[in-house]
Design brief:
The chain is of the alpha+beta class. It has 2 helices and 4 strands, in the order ββαββα. The radius of gyration is 16 Å and the shape is globular.
Length: 114
């Protein structure tokens, strides 16, 4: 997956993002997708030079931060979609995993945000 201009065969992928909290050299972000391309958030973040922490594909060569993550530091806390058959609005909300909370606690302590 990569960012490729539409005129060169790429497909439109729109990601809105907002900074939620600065944590030293790291930033807690909120992303909202208009499109749903494979690895969209991970690709766009890496393309901007700020890959997702723990991403084994798009953050290659980045230093580990000393927190044992089961994957990348990316969490879909809320998903909203329209059911393709019934056209009913569906929303699912998931709590933040403990590993993500631990990561935020460590980064806040290191950055002096605590």
């Amino acid at each position: 997956m990569a960012v490729i201009p539409e005129e060169k065969g790429g497909r439109r992928a729109i990601t809105h993002w907002q900074i939620k909290e600065r944590l030293g050299n790291y930033t807690l972000m909120h992303f909202e997708l208009e499109t749903g391309r494979t690895h969209q958030i991970r690709v766009h973040s890496a393309w901007m030079g700020h890959p997702v922490v723990g991403d084994p594909i798009y953050s290659a060569g980045r230093k580990a931060i000393g927190v044992n993550l089961p994957g990348q530091a990316l969490h879909a806390w809320r998903l909203r979609l329209i059911h393709p058959v019934t056209q009913e609005a569906i929303e699912a909300i998931a709590p933040v995993p403990q590993s993500f909370t631990t990561l935020l606690d460590v980064l806040r302590r290191r950055s002096g945000a605590f």
